[in-house]
């Protein structure tokens, strides 16, 4: 089993040199801590910043400089600022190479639900619907099962959708999986000490297991 | 001679009447028009439709207008943590139209650029698409979304000049320039108002043609929603 | 009869304090010389400038600062620079209060032709089609008859159109005319020494003459 | 590490092949990518489709490519004074698509903003509307125009940094930022190339995400098309 930090660390391995990446709130935010040395990655924050830097030092917070999670941040050399229309313009035009976000549910055809639970207070989708509808490459970072022990990898989402047929890859505490174009979760890697059987039990949607499935490595 | 400069927020919002549709710039509490919001609260104008990415917090920003029950309808992408908002929504006092953030921004852009509608893939296959025209281009589905039609746009800039030109600072830019373009009447409050000619024409984010009233705001609180820091030591 | 300068001078009287104005090439350009004292007018140049100033002094020409006619110009205090998309965005959104341009033909329902003569080399419409399709208030500055002595105010344009039902007012060397919403050229003023009969002879489209028609005054 | 900086125009255009569709920034001769145009002439690449507001003059700018008969089709709003252009057009060697200037700019914007089509009233009721979808919004007719699909956008900026960020100077901005956003591969030549971090993030016109290759150009001629001046004396 992997911790949240380890999920983030595994996802970081998917990031290539020169990528522009949008990180959602939660586990995706942690990915920034594990970007491989020697590669150049630019983080996009959809409120209007390319080149998001780390949190400011104490006393250096700037109320005018925040990320999409409303956290105080910093810029980096090469940063640029733009308005919200341009920000989502570059997202829609697929200039952002990789989007990493959390989910409540993912279906075996790549649908995602992550913004609304009927009966609960709805806070809104923010930029999530724009991101999932536009991004050419989306990785979901989430727990394999919810707090009630139910699988979040489903034949069909039960919650209101955020986007359809858009998720390409999922990293959980148990496994790394691709969503197949024809439907189904293809098991790529399993977390150390996690059996294929356990992953199978934790996956309500169709799990495709072919060949040898290696344990994830984080070195 | 026509003068865009007004004395302050009260004069700027003088003709905003009950039932008006307002755009309010800002992302979270960053870059919100604090002075105008306070003046709207004081003026007690009611039944407003507010187009704003967020709805403030309980005791700051648009939250103050919610406390006074001045808002009939919010059009936002994320309404965040706001107990009074939740109460009014659940009780049916407040109408809420949640739309994707990029759709919100682009519907502003459309208004400012004279485009009656735009196409976006955001929301295709979701409840956001209900009742909307879907159109396929190059094998991909898009929703047709209409330009906003707002009576007033109220924005906050860093610097402005007497010709109405605006410059924004850092991520407090966010929705402000696109909303500034989109209002039938656009009101800008700025931290520093200078004479025409003092701003570099190349560095103006919003040309004065889009701004009808401008004033230098005061007592900016610029509250931080999520104060996140790292230690001064490395790491 | 009025000279080109006097046509420009008459049109300048239509400009109100606070107006943003786009001036086409030719007679419209001359209008800038006659803007009444004490009013504040901002000239838009559709290549991306608000606040167009006069030509530069000799030796101060800047290759990076031109107007839509490709002439070297200057900026003024309060000028702003923007890209072509924003420029035509503000035109389409009717932020420009008044557009003044030349024409080859105007029809009695407000159609305009000013970009193409079949059989002659076509240079292109530039921004003219955008301007006439979008502007809320368009004044045409032109000669009443062409070089062959034929009226340019027609029942219907014979040349390829630039825009339809868009012209509100026409100022020529002979007269000032409104285009009526229901069609027809309503004579408002006549140039000094020009008779209504002469204007009638020079106008192929329907001329509406009601009440007393005063001579234009340029004081 | 990925490096956007290339040695010069030859390297920047290395993979532009016969039959490519290019966007070229500039308005008249103002803000044109002189270095890349010269390199394209030298490279003798042919059968190009060029999207550019104008077509240069006989002996400068895109006119140089016309002289070498490298262009199959021009998409422009105004082709101005250019004898070779006229000759090729009349002889049928050159295809020309004349479109309204705002339509040209907005079709670039649409590509850069991921909008497959936009609506504009420009050209309604004219030959420009032939074969196009017309749609009525609020009682007014609009044409639906499609986003451009260009293999390369070639732009000229004043300053740029190694991250690809661009700043333009005065009206040489014109089509450059919208074309920079619209190319599948965007090449920027700049008068001054600086290290990332030297440009103020608030003053960047084109964020580096849109720019794939950048270099500091040389020997800019910056020719003036219409030199108009006034006397130093008043009046």
TrEMBL record, chains A, C:
Coiled coil: none annotated. InterPro entries: 3-oxoacid_CoA-transf_B, CoA_trans_fam_I, CoA_transf_AS, NagB/RpiA_transferase-like. SMART domains: CoA_trans. Keywords: Transferase. GO terms for molecular function: CoA-transferase activity. Belongs to the 3-oxoacid CoA-transferase subunit B family. PANTHER family: KETOACID-COENZYME A TRANSFERASE, SUCCINYL-COA:3-KETOACID COENZYME A TRANSFERASE SUBUNIT B-RELATED. This is Succinyl-CoA:3-ketoacid-CoA transferase.
TrEMBL record, chains B, D:
Pfam families: CoA_trans. Keywords: Transferase. SUPFAM superfamilies: NagB/RpiA/CoA transferase-like (SSF100950). The keyword Transmembrane does not apply. It comes from the Bacteria. SMART domains: CoA_trans (SM00882). GO terms for molecular function: CoA-transferase activity. Coiled coil: none annotated. Belongs to the 3-oxoacid CoA-transferase subunit A family. NCBIfam families: pcaI_scoA_fam. This is Succinyl-CoA:3-ketoacid-CoA transferase. It comes from Pedobacter kyungheensis.
């Amino acid at each position: 089993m992997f911790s949240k930090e380890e999920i983030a660390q595994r996802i970081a391995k998917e990031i290539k040199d020169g990528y522009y990446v949008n990180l959602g709130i939660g586990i995706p935010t942690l990915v920034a801590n594990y970007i491989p040395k020697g590669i150049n990655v630019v983080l996009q924050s959809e409120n209007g910043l390319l080149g998001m830097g780390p949190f400011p030092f104490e006393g250096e917070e700037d109320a005018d400089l925040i990320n999409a999670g409303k956290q105080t941040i910093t810029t980096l050399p090469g940063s640029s600022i733009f308005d919200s229309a341009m920000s989502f313009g570059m997202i829609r035009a697929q200039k952002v190479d990789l989007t990493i976000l959390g989910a409540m549910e993912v279906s075996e055809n790549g649908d995602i639900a992550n913004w609304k639970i009927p009966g609960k207070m709805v806070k809104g989708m923010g930029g999530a619907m724009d991101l999932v509808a536009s991004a050419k490459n989306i990785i979901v970072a989430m727990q394999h099962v919810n707090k009630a022990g139910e699988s979040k990898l489903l034949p069909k989402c039960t919650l209101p959708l955020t986007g359809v047929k858009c998720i390409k890859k999922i990293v959980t505490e148990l496994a790394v999986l691709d969503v197949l174009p024809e439907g189904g979760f293809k098991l790529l890697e399993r977390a150390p000490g996690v059996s294929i059987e356990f992953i199978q039990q934790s996956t309500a949607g169709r799990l495709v297991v072919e060949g040898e499935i290696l344990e994830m490595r984080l070195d | 001679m026509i003068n865009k400069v007004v004395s302050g927020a009260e004069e700027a919002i003088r003709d905003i009447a009950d039932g008006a549709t307002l755009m309010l710039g800002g992302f979270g509490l960053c870059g919100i028009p604090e002075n105008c919001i306070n003046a709207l609260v004081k003026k007690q104008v009611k039944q407003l439709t507010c187009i704003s990415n967020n709805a403030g917090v309980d005791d700051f920003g648009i939250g103050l207008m919610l406390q006074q029950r001045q808002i009939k309808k919010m059009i936002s992408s994320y309404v965040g943590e706001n107990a009074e908002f939740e109460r009014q929504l659940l009780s049916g006092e407040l109408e809420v139209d949640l739309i994707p953030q990029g759709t919100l921004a682009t519907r502003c852009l459309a208004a400012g650029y004279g485009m009656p509608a735009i196409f976006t893939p955001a929301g295709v296959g979701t409840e956001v698409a209900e009742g909307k025209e879907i159109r396929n281009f190059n094998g991909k589905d898009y929703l047709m979304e209409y330009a906003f039609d707002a009576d007033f746009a109220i924005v906050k800039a860093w610097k402005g000049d007497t010709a109405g030109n605006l410059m924004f600072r850092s991520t407090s830019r966010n929705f402000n320039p696109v909303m500034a373009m989109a209002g039938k009447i656009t009101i800008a409050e700025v931290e520093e108002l200078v004479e025409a000619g003092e701003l570099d024409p190349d560095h103006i984010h919003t040309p004065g043609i889009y701004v009808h009233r401008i004033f230098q705001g005061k007592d900016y609180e610029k509250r931080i929603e999520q104060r996140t820091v790292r230690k001064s030591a490395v790491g």
